[in-house]
Inverse folding.
């Protein structure tokens, strides 16, 4: 039995706000992501899902419990080995503008990431840009982040995440910054990547529809704990936990009739 | 790079100031190569107001004021640049490390920089010069020591703001070492305000040197604008040209560096492209 | 409800002018809100929806914003070029506004009770302030003990309720809510929307709800306007629009909001990028992204076509419409 790609065993993390106050962000969480799987971590603000994402990426060390990547315990490794292993997991953040170095061109960002696999060539960078829909790649090479639109920046961060050929992408609210009309494009991109490259996803979101559209499994988080997990279909159709039910019930439903909207379709 | 110049060019005053400084540098270089007349030359044309022979007049020993000002450029610029460079170099390094690593390092830095900021600069400068003797290196050292905390504070603030941003985390996920992150990602983005502060220090240095000279605390052989002011203030009412021209030189030069600093600061920021 | 509309925006074009460029934020926008009505305004970045909210209360940056043509009337009064001194008669009462991020709009060093009291004193001087503040807190379903808290001590939802209390302190006839729930969690969002509904009934208050979220607008509003690149492109009764959306952009938004997929399993999406509002534009601003664009779409902007008594659209797919004016320079009338 192969170990899952990512496993968090009984992980807890507390933040100290002042000398007297501390906040328990994550409490005894167990979560795993198998190779090629998409797990959606759903929760509201303050649920601890972002902290969990950072723990999974190794950006934070848990106060108790362990994080395993392909069966290896992340925080017991020597520094050099840790650096080599963490390349397997790459992030996509919510705010694409903050996720890019303002002084580095698209080319610079991609070459930096490609260097990890020893493939730092411009041709590779162009191929990456085109694979995320920035065509022709040559035009985008020398652009700085502020010269790109919001959607283009997000595509660039996705390209960078792909450059080092990771096995797992941790996407923290990847659609929240984008306009509604652009979201479909980014969703399609993520879908393509998932299907063509068999990359696993830990998708962190507060938006149930994104989870519904994408995930194989769903884990619902509330106040630092996972209250429910299971196959996406089951959790979203027949939620067992009261909080999950409340969460699903609060989403405003559109009174559309699909027949009417199916008629005239804009470009896909 | 091209973008930087474009942004810089949109600040009219900054560009004007830049030209002024360039002219000063050119004059200084020209005088190194072709010294011409000696400004120390004592002539018989004593206390002459500005005229055809002596464009800006002469002082009580018959020395030409214009020559004095031209030769004084060297002192002012070299003290200014050297002090600013020293202060900025120290400030950037200390501030970046304090901001990035935090903890005890940051605590020490804060206390040390407070000491330097609390000490009244002129008095400390005068003390050191009085003890070690007049000389340009001493002046430069004093100014650097007094000015680095300003730069360091700005640098520290910027670094602290930047280190929490997602692009730093993204680089971390690529397995980059912490130190490389600080040097390669954070410092280049944090430099702009520090450099702007650095150019302001040129102005401060020139003023401090002028003040020291004014109080006679600098070497008599070196011509500087402050020293000219020192000698000229006795004759303020009968020979106004002895004070006004050196004073104007100090004023214009300090102003130019301040404007330059402003323009540099906003030109270095890639986001303040257009309104 | 017949009678003059509370808010009547007629053919308004507004642009931001700086030394470097001109941004046409609004172009020939028509919008009205009647007494007691809930009207929704849907659009994305660059649609102009926030500009409208601010223009109605004179909150656009004075140096660069200019209303080039058209008029805005509040309760019959023309406020298009109102002087700063006269705006105090409009702001707060009869028109109040709440914004997206309550933390930015509350004074961080003043207790919230005091801030609500300020509003009370300003608009109803002479009234017993403390009891009115308590009354307002009750109306927005906040415990009376909140009055002594500072904004940062309250949660996002509570802060938004405080903003609402400040807004309703003077019993406004119209409440403009600019993305009031965007910064909130989905469960809090539901609570705030329910609260808004209740307040509207209690105070017979009309509402202009601005959002990028179709779902919110659908559940809370009687009528909707859809905006794109500074123009209103479709408007009418909520039910009518959702039953049979006409404009390709509206249809696209609905697909995107539901994360609909087509036969190949790909998400239905709108191609292209959000609009660029600088420079002149002839014709329909959506043409570049529209899969059903026709040659005339890039030349002329069609006039409104009434599909139903309370559902109109501006799209060549449905005809030229009434008063189709030629697109001219300066984007004055198009």
């Amino acid at each position: 039995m192969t170990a899952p790609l990512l496993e968090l065993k009984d992980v807890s993390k507390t933040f100290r706000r002042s000398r007297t106050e501390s906040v328990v962000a994550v409490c005894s969480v167990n979560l795993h992501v198998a190779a090629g799987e998409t797990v959606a971590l759903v929760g509201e603000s303050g649920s601890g899902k972002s902290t969990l994402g950072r723990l999974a990426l190794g950006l934070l060390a848990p106060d108790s419990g362990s994080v395993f990547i392909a069966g290896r315990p992340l925080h017991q490794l020597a520094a050099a080995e840790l650096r080599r292993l963490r390349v397997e997991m790459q992030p996509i953040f919510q705010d694409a503008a903050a996720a890019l170095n303002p002084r580095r061109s698209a080319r610079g960002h991609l070459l930096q990431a490609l260097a990890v696999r020893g493939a730092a060539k411009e041709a590779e960078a162009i191929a990456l840009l085109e694979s995320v829909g920035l065509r022709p790649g040559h035009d985008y090479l020398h652009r700085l982040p502020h010269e790109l639109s919001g959607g283009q920046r997000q595509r660039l961060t996705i390209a960078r995440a792909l450059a080092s050929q990771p096995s797992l992408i941790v996407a923290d609210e990847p659609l929240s910054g984008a306009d509604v009309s652009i979201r479909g494009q980014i969703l399609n991109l993520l879908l393509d990547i998932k299907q063509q490259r068999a990359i696993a996803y830990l998708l962190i979101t507060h938006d149930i529809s994104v989870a519904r559209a994408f995930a194989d499994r769903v884990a619902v988080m509330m106040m630092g704990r996972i209250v429910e997990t299971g196959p996406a279909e089951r959790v979203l159709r027949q939620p067992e936990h009261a909080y999950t039910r409340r969460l699903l019930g609060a989403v405003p439903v559109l009174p559309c009739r699909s027949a009417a909207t199916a008629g005239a379709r804009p470009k896909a | 790079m091209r973008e930087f110049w474009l942004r810089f060019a949109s600040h009219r005053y900054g560009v004007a100031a830049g030209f002024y400084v360039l002219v000063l540098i050119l004059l200084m270089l020209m005088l190194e190569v072709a010294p011409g007349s000696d400004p120390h030359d004592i002539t018989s044309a004593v206390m002459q107001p500005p005229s055809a022979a002596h464009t800006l007049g002469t002082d009580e020993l018959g020395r030409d004021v214009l020559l004095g000002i031209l030769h004084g450029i060297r002192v002012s610029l070299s003290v200014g640049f050297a002090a600013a460079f020293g202060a900025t170099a120290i400030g950037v390094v200390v501030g970046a490390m304090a901001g990035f690593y935090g903890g005890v390092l940051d605590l020490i830095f804060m206390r040390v920089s407070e000491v330097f900021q609390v000490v009244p600069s002129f008095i400390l400068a005068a003390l050191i010069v009085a003890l070690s003797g007049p000389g340009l290196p001493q002046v430069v050292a004093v100014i650097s020591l007094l000015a680095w905390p300003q730069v360091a504070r700005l640098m520290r603030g910027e670094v602290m703001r930047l280190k929490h941003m997602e692009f730093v985390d993204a680089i971390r996920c690529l397995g980059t070492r912490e130190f490389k992150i600080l040097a390669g990602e954070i410092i280049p983005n944090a430099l702009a305000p520090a450099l702007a502060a650095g150019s302001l220090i040129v102005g401060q240095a020139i003023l401090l040197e002028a003040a020291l000279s004014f109080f006679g605390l600098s070497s008599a052989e070196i011509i500087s604008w402050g020293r000219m002011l020192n000698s000229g203030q006795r004759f303020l009412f009968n020979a106004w040209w002895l004070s006004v021209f050196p004073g104007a030189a100090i004023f214009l030069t300090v102003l130019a560096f301040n404007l330059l600093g402003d323009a540099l600061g906003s030109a270095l920021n890639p986001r303040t492209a257009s309104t | 409800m017949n009678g003059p509309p509370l808010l009547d925006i007629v053919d308004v074009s507004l642009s931001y002018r700086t030394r470097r460029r001109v941004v046409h934020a609004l172009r020939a926008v028509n919008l009205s809100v009647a007494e007691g009505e809930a009207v929704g305004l849907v659009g994305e970045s660059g649609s102009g929806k926030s500009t409208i909210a601010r223009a109605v209360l004179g909150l656009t940056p004075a140096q660069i914003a200019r209303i080039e043509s058209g008029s805005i009337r509040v309760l019959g009064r023309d406020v298009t070029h109102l002087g700063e001194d006269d705006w105090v008669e409009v702001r707060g009462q009869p028109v109040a506004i709440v914004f997206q991020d309550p933390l930015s709009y509350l004074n961080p060093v003043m207790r919230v009770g005091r801030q609500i009291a300020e509003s009370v004193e300003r608009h109803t001087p002479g009234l017993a302030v403390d009891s009115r503040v308590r009354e307002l807190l009750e109306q927005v379903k906040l415990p009376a003990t909140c009055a002594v808290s500072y904004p940062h001590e309250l949660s996002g939802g509570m802060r938004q309720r405080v903003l609402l209390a400040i807004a309703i302190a003077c019993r406004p006839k119209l409440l403009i809510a600019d993305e009031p729930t965007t910064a909130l969690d989905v469960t809090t969002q539901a609570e705030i929307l329910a609260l808004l509904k209740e307040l509207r009934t209690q105070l017979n208050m009309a509402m202009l709800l601005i959002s990028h979220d179709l779902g919110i607008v659908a559940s809370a509003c009687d009528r909707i306007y859809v905006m794109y690149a500074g123009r209103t492109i479709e408007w009418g009764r909520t039910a009518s629009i959702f039953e049979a959306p006409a404009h390709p952009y509206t249809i696209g938004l609905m697909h995107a909001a539901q994360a609909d997929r087509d036969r190949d399993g790909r998400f239905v999406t709108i191609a292209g990028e959000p609009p660029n509002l600088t420079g002149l534009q002839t014709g329909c601003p959506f043409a570049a992204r529209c899969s059903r664009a026709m040659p005339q779409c890039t030349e002329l902007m069609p006039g409104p076509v009434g599909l139903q008594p309370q559902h109109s659209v501006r799209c060549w797919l449905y005809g030229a419409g009434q008063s189709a004016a030629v697109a001219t320079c300066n984007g004055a009338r198009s």
Observations:
- The mean pLDDT of chain B is 84.
- The interface with chain A takes residues 165-167, 169-177, 185, 188-189, 270-271, 273 of chain B (CB under 8 Å).
- Residues 2-35+56-267 of chain B form a domain with the MetI-like fold fold (CATH 1.10.3720.10).
